[in-house]
Amino acid sequence: MSISLQSLITMVDSWLGEGKRVLGPKLVKPDFVQYAWLGAGSELQLEGFLRPANSIKEVVFPRHETLYRYRVDGKTVQLLEEDFKPVETLVLGARPCDAAALPILDPLFNWDFRDEFWNLRRKAVTVVTLACQSWDEQCFCTSVGLGPDAARGSDVLLYPLGNGHFAVRLITDKAAALFGSYADEDHPDPSPGPPVKFAPDAVKEFLQANFESSFWQENTLRCLGCGACAYYCPTCHCFDIIDEKSSRVRNWDACQFALFTLHASGHNPRKTQPERQRQRLQHKFRIYPEKFGEILCTGCGNCTRNCPVGLGVLNVLKAVQHG
Amino acid sequence: MSSDSRAFEPKIIAYVCNWCTYLGADLAGTNRLEYPPNVRIVRLPCTGRIDFNLIVKGFEVGADAVLISGCHPGDCHYTAGNYHARRRWMLFRPLLDVLGFDLRRVHFTWISAAEGKKFQQVITEITEQTRRLGPYPYLKFTKDGGAPNWSPPAARPRAPVHGEAQMRETARDLLASGAVNVVLGYDAAGAPAFAWKPEETARLAWNENARTNLAVYLKRKEIRALGKIGMVTPPETARALNVLERESQVDREQVVEIAVERSAEPPDFSALESFMALPPEERMRFWIHEFERCVRCYACRAVCPMCYCERCIVENNRPQEISPSATIEGNFAWHIARAFHQAGRCVGCGACAHACPAQIPLGLLNAAIAKAALDQFQYRPGSERGQEPLIGRYSLNDKEDFIR
């Protein structure tokens, strides 16, 4: 038993009809696919592209969200807190490298403070992942322990059968009601995926030994300090909290911005761009693994593809490999 | 908003200067001249100090029309504030136009302290006109029906480039002779690349892939710290250096330009012209769909040689004039501010649009202002060394056919 594209489209429409949300790959411009909120099942795009240019993290970690509102009345401040009720959400057509980011981030959002916005949204999300059949020179999932049909973070894995049908592999019970009747006993052999490009342990060792090193100046001087790598990364999760229009809101933030570490005094502990690049690499391949036992990278390659000056994790790690 | 159109009372925000129009409004009051109570007056020192963002802000907070009014030419309390304002509006209106603002709701007038009668007339007329137009659904066009069916005309093929071998030779000589400490150029994929030693110039390339305007690096402290730098300089980079030099942002002595050629290209406004054929509300609907994808990664700002402020206006929070939130209002405010801060300065290199990971056609916004600068002032930023800036100067003859 497999599922047809038509059945998937019908499923999207029925979810939308129930007032739920569906995020999926969509052709937002000619030759340009992004994950986007679908307005109809017919917008779902599952073939003809490598991977969407962004990530699915917005379903649990929106670029902008209101934490609470308040009213200032004379000298008193009244909190207008409401119970946060996330909308039930289906992600259809995620890539394995997007889905895996969610469990990697769970411990971060539940470490010293339990972030209920994250947790409630997580519970309300069902992730249906499409196994990869192709990859490009920027892909490196196999170097960070994942692969073209890695099941991590997915509730269902779909394997394209090439005839408008997809083999269905149930991973969790969450989507059993939706996909149970289509489940397959067998699924096709996974594609081999991109060749392994580096060894994370060697990278970690290098990072430990080369905090102060000319390596950063030599290899990352061309970084211009935008947030494209972080904002299109499935695992980057830094945020900024500000007050706006009588609300306390949370927006994405990125370590490549000069303002990210700027103190009120004017002192900036990371003065130059190579220091900020070092931070990004150190955090992903040394600090996060030391703290949470996981690499903070799923090998999707978004950082390299979206970088205006051709940097990104892989290009820097290639330089590590070459010493 | 009421569904009963008879109940609609337009809200009009008037930004007026302290010395003329505000006193004109005062005179209207003391003379008991009646005018509609629909106007909310915001008094500012001078039209020259009225930030263009306030016009946008007015619509953001629910105005149906915005009026900006100051002293007649020659009457400015500060000598020339209104002339500066007039020139800015000449370039700002085309930007509002390309974004699909309803220009029938953006008014400019000169009203002196003696013209209580004119103030009465203007407010009465604007109120009546806005009442006929109905409420302004700024950014509230329904998204049903999707984005308007517009796509840019086929891009003109990039002009062929030449001079790669000569560039490598010059770069090698500069490094070998010690004339520069480093050469900044492009690798074969078009990414910016540094060559520190003469033999490293072999990896420098000059081909159609190169899209970054390397002048952008001169704003960075860590690059300035490298000392004398050789820079691969196609024509658009040379234009950027001209503007930056005039704005005291680069020390030309520290940069050795390694000129590379791209066949001469006149500015191309074909995409803009095709886009402007859409009606205004369709244009705004288009931008609502485009800006929805903006996550504020600021790649457009990072790659722009002209965006050199150490603290960008969007990072100022006292007051927070532009929302840093990636909402539709915030994104409109941001892209308007970004584009207009380039007015008369953008060299049209296209790096912003090329860098945008969301593929938002930012070039259309820059082109709208560039076209106005060319049509009205025969001005092309950076076309010569020492060129006077366009904004920050004025002429007594600047056009004011849009000012009552």
Description:
The complex is a heterodimer of chains A (323) and B (404). Chain A is built from 11 helices and 11 strands. Helices cover 28% and strands 21% of the residues of chain A. With 323 residues, chain A is α/β, with parallel strands linked by helices. Chain A has one domain (2-321). The relative contact order of chain A is 0.15. In chain A, helix 6 crosses helix 9 (273-292) and helix 7 (214-220) packs across helix 9 (273-292). In chain B, a hairpin with a 5-residue loop joins strand 6 and strand 7 (192-195). Chain B folds into 3 domains: 10-133, Rossmann fold, CATH 3.40.50; 161-262, no CATH class; 270-377, no CATH class. In chain B, helix 2 (52-60) runs antiparallel to helix 11 (328-340) and helix 3 (81-98) packs across helix 13. Chain B has 13 helices and 10 strands. Chain B has helices at residues 21-30, 52-60, 81-98, 116-133, 164-177, 221-224, 235-246, 270-276, 280-291, 299-302, 328-340, 351-355, 363-377, and strands at residues 12-17, 39-44, 65-70, 106-110, 161-162, 182-186, 192-195, 229-233, 255-259, 261-262. The mean pLDDT of chain B is 93. In chain B, the strands form 3 sheets. In chain B, strands 2-1-3-4 form a 4-stranded parallel β-sheet, with helices on both faces. A 4-stranded mixed β-sheet of chain B has the order 7-6-8-9. In chain B, strands 5-10 form a two-stranded antiparallel sheet. By secondary structure, chain B is of the alpha/beta class. The A-B interface holds A 28-30, 32, 34, 36, 39, 53-54, 63-64, 217, 221-222, 224-228, 230-232, 240, 242, 244, 249, 251-252, 254, 257-259, 271-274, 306, 308-311 and B 146, 151, 187, 189-194, 212, 216-217, 220-223, 293, 295-299, 301-303, 310-311, 315, 317, 320, 323-327, 330, 351, 354-355, 357-359.
Mean pLDDT of chain A: 95
**N to C succession of SSEs of chain B:** EHEHEHEHEHEEHEHEEHHHHHH
Question: Number of folding domains of chain B?
Answer: 3
CATH classification class of the largest domain in chain B: Alpha Beta
Total beta strand runs of chain A: 11
Biggest interface, chains and residues, is: A-B, 41 and 42 residues
What is the total tally of β strands of chain B? 10
Q: Into how many domains do the coordinates of chain A divide?
A: 1
- The SSE string of chain A, one letter per element, is EHEEEEEHHHEEEHHHHEEHHH
Strand content of chain A: 15-25%
Strand pairing plus helix content of chain B: what structural class? alpha/beta
